Amino acid sequence: MRTLALTGALAGFCILAACGGGGTTPPKRASTGAAKIGLLLDDLRQERWQRDRDLFVSRAEELRAKVEVRTGEGTSEGQLKAANELLDAGVKVLVVVPNDLEKAIAIVDAATAKKVPVISYDRLIRGADVAMYVSFDNVKVGRMQAEALLSRAPRGNYVLLGGAQSDNNAHLLRDGQMEVLKPAVASGAVKIVAEPWIDGWDEGVAKTQMASILKKTKNVAAVVASNDSIAKGAIDALAEAQLAGKVPVSGQDAEIGACQRIVAGTQTMTVYKPLKTLARMAAGDAVKLAGGQSAGSLTTMNNGKKDVPARLLDPISVDKSNLDVTVISDGYHTRAEVYGSK
Ligand code: GAL
Predict the structure, then answer these.
(1) What are the residues whose beta carbons fall under 8 Å from the beta carbon of 59, sequence distance 6 or more?
(2) Most buried by CB count within 10 Å: which residue of 124, 187, 225, 312?
(3) CA of 27 to the centre of ligand 1 (A)
C-alpha cells in the first residue's frame, strides 16, 4: 500500500466522434477510421470529474478520435465490468481513473491480454504494467496544504483528514503533508491528535469523523483536509461546535463551494489543479498510443512494478489573496460565482 519514489519524469455510455487543433496534430489516419479511446472514470460524484470528462472528450474530438465514456459507479467491481465492455467494444487505448489502486490491476491485465495500453489518469495504479501516468504532483499538493495551515497555526493540535485509502493520491498527499509537519511535530509545537482516512473522500463521512474528534479534543488548532468535499464535512462539524472560521482548514480541487467558503472565511485555502491542461494532455497522449506512437519524453514514477513513464503537472495554492489571479482569471469560476457579485 505504501507510496512511491520519483526518478528521471462515466455511469452512462456515450459515443462521440471528433476533429483537430492545438498541439498534437491529428494523425494522418489511413482508412482505419478514428482512433477508439475508452475513458473509464471512478464515479462522477465530485465536481471535478465531470470537467475532466468533458475536457478530455472535447480534446479527443479535436484529434479525430472516438471516445466511449464509462464509470464504475464508485466500485472496483463496477469498473472491471465496464473495462471489459470497453475492451470488447474494441478500444485501442484505455484511460483509467482507478477506484482502487491495487484492484485495478485486473483492468490492466485484461487490457494487456488484448494488447491495449492503459493510461493511469490522475491516480496511479500500483503493481501493474501501465503504459503511462498523467497527473499533478500530488506530494506537492500535500505540502501546500500543510504549509498554508502551519503559517496560520504554528502550534497546537492538528487533525489530518486523509482521502480514500484505496486512492494512491491520498497517500502521496499525506507524504507531502507530513514532510512539512514533521519538524513542528518533532519540536513538540504541533501534535497530531487524529489522522483518519475518509472513505470515498465523502463529505458525510468527514463530518461524522470530525464531530467525533471534536468530542474528544476541544482545542483543535487546524484541520488538514485532503480535498474540498472533506473540508466541507469538517467545516459543517466545526460550525455545529461554533468553531467555523476560527480553525484553519485546507482543501483541494477549487470547487465552487470551497472558493465561496474561502471568501466567507470558513475555509483557509484550496489547491487549484488546471484540469484543462491535464485532460487535453492526456487526450493527446491517448491518441498517440492508440495510433501506436510513443508519447514522447517523460519523467517516470515507480508503482512498485516498474518505472512508469509519467507527466506530472504543477498544482497552485489558492487562498483569499489570489483567487482572482488563479481560478477566476483561468475562467474555472466566474467572479459572480465566487463573490456572488459582478
Ligand atoms: C483524487 C483527486 C482529487 C479528488 C479526489 C476525490 O484522486 O486527485 O482531485 O478529487 O480524488 O475524487
Answers:
(1) 22, 279, 280, 283, 284
(2) 225
(3) 32
The answer, yes or no, to whether any atom of ligand 1 lies below 6 A from the CB of 171, is no
What DSSP designation does 70 have? E
Q: Collapsing DSSP states into helix, strand and coil, what is residue 27?
A: coil
CB 71 within 8 A of CB 43: yes
169 Cβ below 6 A of ligand 1: yes
Q: Which residues on adjacent β-strands are paired with residue 222? A: 158
CA 178 vs. chain centroid, Å, equals 19
From the CB of 174, is ligand 1 less than 6 Å away?
Answer: no
Query: Does pTM top 0.70 for this prediction?
Result: yes
Q: Give mean pLDDT, residues 290-308.
A: 91
User: Number of helices (H) and strands (E), helices first, in the chain?
Assistant: 10, 14
* 46 CA: nearest ligand 1 atom: 12
Contact status, residue 131 vs residue 119, Cβ threshold 8 Å: yes
Ramachandran bin of 98, using left for φ above 0, alpha for ψ from -120 to 50, beta for the remaining angles: beta
Q: Looking at residues 179-201, what average pLDDT do you find?
A: 98
Residue from 10, 41, 48, 55 to probe ligand 1 pocket by mutation (most atoms less than 8 Å from CB): 48
Residue-by-residue DSSP string for 147-190: HHHHHH--SEEEEEEB--TTSHHHHHHHHHHHHHHHHHHHTTSE
N-to-C CA span, the chain: 47
Joined together, the cell numbers standing for residue 237 give: 462539524
CA-based nearest residue to 144, from 225, 220, 209? 225
> Mean pLDDT of all residues in the chain?
92
